[in-house]
Write the structure tokens for this entry.
Amino acid sequence: MTVLGITLGVILAAGFWLLVAPKNAPPEKKALPGSKRLQALLDEAGYGHLTLPVVVALSVVVAVLVGAVVAVVVPIPVVALISGFAALFLGYGFVLRQRRIRQHRLRMAWPGVIDHIRAGIRSGSDITQAIGALPASLPSDVADHVVVFASNIERGMGTDNALSELGRGLADPVGDRIVEVLRMAHDVGGTDLPDVLLSLQHSVRHDIAVREDAHAKQSWIRSAAILAVAAPWVVLVVIGTRGDTAASYQTPQGTLILVLGALVSVVAFRIMRSIGSLPEQRRWLT
């Protein structure tokens, strides 16, 4: 269990460093691109109120607890280590899933949002009034940020800055497109804004139809990938409680087999996921 203790200690130390380092970093030092991407992922998943160090620290604690529990149930040190790292990846996968769920929820709402804004502008309202008049019945992912936008305008914030804050809060590719169209119309003016919004609405509806159809057809690939990766390890955990099986995997050869098996599982899962995934929409505002 010495190897297990050392590795878990290293993981805890890394998590603690990530928790403390941002506070001690020089003000002029910018965040690493990877950190920015992870924070953007949290924003897009609806967890923008959480900071990256807190999430990393929580993930490390969960990984250590999972590894400790598995070490007690299955007396194979390398299995406990693999379980701890798997818990980290499962946490990352959970955030990705929450982002997909939120993006789907927003995709369903965007055509209606565009229609409301377009109707408000055609009735003579300016951009801020049209956004502020969006109904409260919209999903909270939109309605809450509309309330913040209206509050910023009431406090005297400029329309351009308020729209930028709105885009960052929505944290969605389609939301970025809507905000940029509105910002451009506010900056340079334009009587064709209703027609531009109508074209954007048609584009969004087409994208929704294509993605929903592809998602339905490729969902079996994602399910098969999860099942194919999880099944062997579930079997290993079950049989690993037997003394003779545990003894065979506690040898260097057994450890090597399990490590190689974990690497192959990760690579195979990534390949299957890439086959069954759609190209992600790139954001304009990050």
